[in-house]
Amino acid sequence: MEVYKKRQQKVYSYLRKEGFDIAVLADLEERRNPSLRYLTGHPADALLFLSSRGECFLIPWDENLAAELAFVDKIIPYNSYKRSFSIAVQSLVEEWRLKEGSRIELSGKFPYPSAVELISSLPDMEIICRDQGLDSLLLKLRSIKDKSEIQSLQRACEISNEIIQGIEDLLADKRNTLRELDIAQYIDSEARTRGAEGTGFETLAAAATRSFAIHAFPSYGSSLIGERGFSVIDFGVKYRGYTSDVTITLIRGPLSRLQQKMAEAVSEIYELAISLIDNGISTGEIALKIDEAFARWGFKMPHALGHGIGLAAHEAPFLRTEDQNSNIVLKEGMIFTVEPGLYYPEAGGIRLENDILITSHGLKVMTNSRIIEI
């Protein structure tokens, strides 16, 4: 497909500019890297070699799946190299006839022992493994979604909206009998029924007694959903590799004074965040204003305002004030969450999370999460 060729061309240009002969990525069980799917369409479990000469070789664990889904120049089964990363690299170095002193960049996601092993086996080559290299380029490219990516995320969000409505309908019929696991299983079943690959991450369904945690542990159990207080449901739907990320909070009264204040603050600050988002605005500027708004209520939010979504549930851009990423400017094609929340052991937790697309005309709210009173 042409979209993958264009993405690969950007890597080839990067390699030539940086003076590298080969770049190596891996998406394996012990180290996941969604950028491999971004570049090839292959979902997981493979090595990827890209040459500055403009060649892209995939070394998959599942050759049949790669033949069906991957868009690369050549597919070589991983078993051909005894399922050894080092042997695979050495073999490709020989096939591409790399000269002494050639430079090879490993993704920064490779563990240190793998890099050391390769340096030992290829002493005549310059092996570079770094954080701020090819991985950074790919994360930056992935932060701006192209037309096909937006279409996939749009469908993931549509399915999410249908599921949110379905949950509300279920609660109307079975408010006193639905357990956390019933909700989680419903989400997975409905997502797959509607053509999704499944959920983008493990669903979090926390009844009122467990909603005080940002991410409940375990993620769901057998507690009844919708008891007095706040029940939180956080899920994502993965469609063609791209995941939504939404959170609804179920409220059942009567509420304590603290719970009422929390609900009012989160609702108000969510609307403030939406009003601040626009093309060309700094993520750090938005996050700082939200932190200040929570402070006026007498609260402090314990997590970032939001994060990018795509092939991973958490990717650039991040809406937070704490680090070097805080001054990223919002651009057309970025898709991210907005998710103000508060959590207290004595009151439980409340979060409202929707997915936002930046367009040439401003923002588009893609999902329909809400605080639901039951």
Instruction: Categorize the overall geometry.
Output: elongated
What is the tally of helical segments? 10
What is the H level of CATH, i.e. the homologous superfamily of the largest domain?
Creatinase/methionine aminopeptidase superfamily
Seen as an oligomer or otherwise, the chain set is single chain
CATH architecture level-2 label of the largest domain:
Alpha-Beta Complex
Number of domains: 2
- Kindly name the structural category: alpha+beta
Percent of sequence in beta strands:
15-25%
Q: Mind telling me the CATH class of the largest domain?
A: Alpha Beta
Order of secondary-structure elements = HEHEEHEHEHEHHHEEEEEEHHEEEEEEEE
CATH topology of the largest domain: Creatine Amidinohydrolase
- In what order do the strands lie side by side in the largest sheet? 4-3-2-1-5-6
Query: End-to-end span in angstroms?
Result: 47 Å
Largest sheet entry: 6 strands, mixed
Number-wise, the strands total: 20
**What is the share of helical residues?**
25-40%
Mean pLDDT, all residues: 95
Uncertain spans, ≥5 residues at pLDDT below 50? none
Task: Supply Rg.
Answer: 23 Å
